[in-house]
Amino acid sequence: MAFNMFSGLIGLIIFALDVWAIAQIINSRAETTPKVIWIAVVALLPVVGLIAWYVAGPKSNLQLPPD
Length: 67
Fold this sequence. Notes:
Elements: H1 2-26, H2 32-44, H3 46-56
């Protein structure tokens, strides 16, 4: 019984992190195509996609130097 509750809690945490990551992706300054790809990766591969986005995903706080 305790294992089932633990598994459910882990699943809920992963789901919440995926929702947060998708919201961050949507609000990023990246172009539409990379956003769609990242959302698909995070949605289809929840744990792997979340880690990949955290490591290599679009960063909304990047500032391009002025020309």
